[in-house]
Amino acid sequence: MHRHLNDKYVQKTNKGGYRSRSAYKLIEIDNKFKLLQKGQKVIDLGASPGGWSQVASRKGANVVAIDIKPVNTIAGVEYIQCDINELEILRNKFKDQKFDVILSDMAPESCGLKSLDHIRIMLLCEAALNLAKHFLNYGGKFVVKIFQGESDKDFYNELKKIFKTVKYFKPKSSRSESTEMYLVGLDFVGGKDLK
Fold first, then answer.
1. Considering 20, 23, 63, 158, which has the largest number of Cβ atoms within 10 A of its Cβ?
2. CB-based burial label for 137 (10 Å; 0-12, 13-18, 19+)
3. Active-site annotation holds for 172
4. Number of neighbouring beta carbons within 10 Å of residue 86
5. Which domains, and CATH codes, for the chain?
6. Which of 59, 69, 145, 195 is catalytic?
7. Tens-of-pLDDT digits for all 195 residues of the chain?
């Protein structure tokens, strides 16, 4: 509790009016990779409590927040409550719409066992990537949270097949002891033939 209250990003979150300290992770990723621009169409996967949706919306993007949990209303953000594996629901919702950026800060509830947490987050990464293959615009961008472990390299190689550039990035606002990293895919070239 002491660490949390004295965390400079928690303090900044309160001042900046963001719903989570993770908002600053996306701000850092955006500063580095220039992801977000006015008028873009953005999906925020696992959006609750809404910090990343706030960042994208404040940048002038048109944001669709998707989460299995309820998310309190954010001005200018459309919210869909569903499991991201339910592609049929999303296909019906989006019709032929494509998106410029797909963001995923999803993580499983930690069970404390690193190897199991790693497997569980990699399953979420695969689900996020599957969704991106269906709804990402050609040339689009993809950001996904991973925990470093035995299969993140395989996932990196999977991204390399469908994005021109793939980079690992650890924001300063990530806690130093955490194995959390982000993979950033730029210039989407794959998935064109998916139905």
1. 63
2. middle
3. no
4. 14
5. 21-188 (3.40.50.150)
6. 145
7. 544 444 554 555 555 667 577 899 999 999 999 999 999 999 999 999 999 999 999 999 999 999 999 888 998 899 999 999 999 999 999 998 999 999 999 988 877 788 888 899 999 999 999 999 999 999 999 999 998 888 889 999 999 999 999 999 999 877 777 788 999 999 999 854 444
